[in-house]
Design a protein that fits this description.
By secondary structure, the chain is α+β, with helices and mostly antiparallel strands. The protein has a domain of 75 residues. Helices cover 56% and strands 20% of the residues. The chain has 3 helices and 6 strands; from the N terminus they run H-E-E-E-H-H-E-E-E. Strands 1-2 form a two-stranded antiparallel sheet. A two-stranded antiparallel ribbon has the order 3-4. A two-stranded antiparallel ribbon has the order 5-6. Helix 2 packs antiparallel against helix 3. The protein is flat, with a radius of gyration of 31 Å.
Length: 158
């Protein structure tokens, strides 16, 4: 126990000067001042002084319906897999030895595991495909109006 105490004291003595310099440098550097930079597409955005923040690109999900279907199928695959494993375990417990009376739970278990694999195989690609973000370039007959500091912009997409 005394040996561990000496080791921890030596470690603290070695690290203490490093911690002191890190703390001193953190106190010496003031935080960057924030200024308001006008952005035509998003209004006013707080950005550090001297940096030009690029306007965020407008995106949307490729297909929220496909994404929701993928989530549902993936969740059902988990339920089917757990149910199949449970039935397979029940079938193995009941079957036990030479009597062949527990064939039905074993078949239900195998069907549940296979169904879970099929549902996961269908749900995950639907989820990934539907959740992909794509640029929002839908046609609009009403202009998008953006007001800046000393400017106004109208944007139509055809």
């Amino acid at each position: 126990m005394l040996r561990g105490f000496r080791l921890s004291c030596a470690l603290m003595a070695a690290l203490l000067p490093t911690l002191a310099t890190v703390q001193a440098s953190a106190q010496a550097a003031p935080p960057a001042a924030l200024t308001l930079a006008p952005e035509l597409t998003t209004g006013y955005v707080a950005s550090p002084a001297g940096s030009e923040a690029a306007p965020p690109e407008l995106t949307r999900r490729r297909s929220p319906a496909l994404m929701a279907t993928g989530i549902l199928l993936t969740a059902l695959s988990a339920v089917a897999t757990v149910g199949g494993a449970t039935f397979l375990g029940i079938g193995a417990t009941i079957h036990g030895g030479d009597n062949g009376g527990a064939v039905l739970p074993t078949y239900f278990g195998l069907a549940g595991l296979a169904g879970g694999a099929v549902l996961a195989g269908a749900g995950v690609p639907l989820l990934i495909y539907g959740a992909k973000e794509i640029p929002d370039t839908e046609a609009s007959y009403v202009p998008k109006v953006a007001v800046g500091n000393r400017s106004v912009a109208l944007a139509w997409t055809f």
